[in-house]
Here is the input.
Amino acid sequence: MHVRQLQLDELSAVLRDVKHGEISAAQAIKRLERSRHWVWTASDPESKLLVGTAIGPRTLALAQRVVRQGAHVLAPDWVPLFVTDGFRESLTALLTHYGQWSQPERRRATGARRKPRWVPLPQLCYAQVVKSYRRRRIVGVQHHVVFGTMERVKQVLSTGGRQINTAFVERLHLDIRQRVAAVGRRVNTLCKSEDGLQYQLALFHCAPQ
Here is the structure.
């Protein structure tokens, strides 16, 4: 496939305590960091195609799995614009799959050669949307171009006149919350196993919306 942009994000399974006001959103996220039931997605905002999904803890290994799924369905040597939130492991996962060894030039004509460095591919373009919260409300949004240039990012986004954002994958997560009981915010249903959650997601993926 040739997609111009991929938005990646992760969805926590249950935040029931936040709804009751018992703990803050930041405390709930920290508590759920090691939970097994996070839903990871990668989506193309233009075609609305769900490129990859994974279930597991909010770790580097899961971030790499989702990036690898996207890489497998993309055309060879095709690198889209990636947009994520500020989760630092997403940066590492992208650099792992879209990087290469580079031999730095010597600073002097003589002496030991400098060690090779792992650097992003020249065509890798990656931006982050970092949101700041206060009392469970968004009080600030910052946009960072991590790899590539702002000019290249704007060129990719120019077709639809859009800005850097993760709105499309967040809208997808809202649909998942509304249709998959195991990750709903206002339900009493708890997923007893990872397989059960995977089956529900597969049904959501295949059923007509």
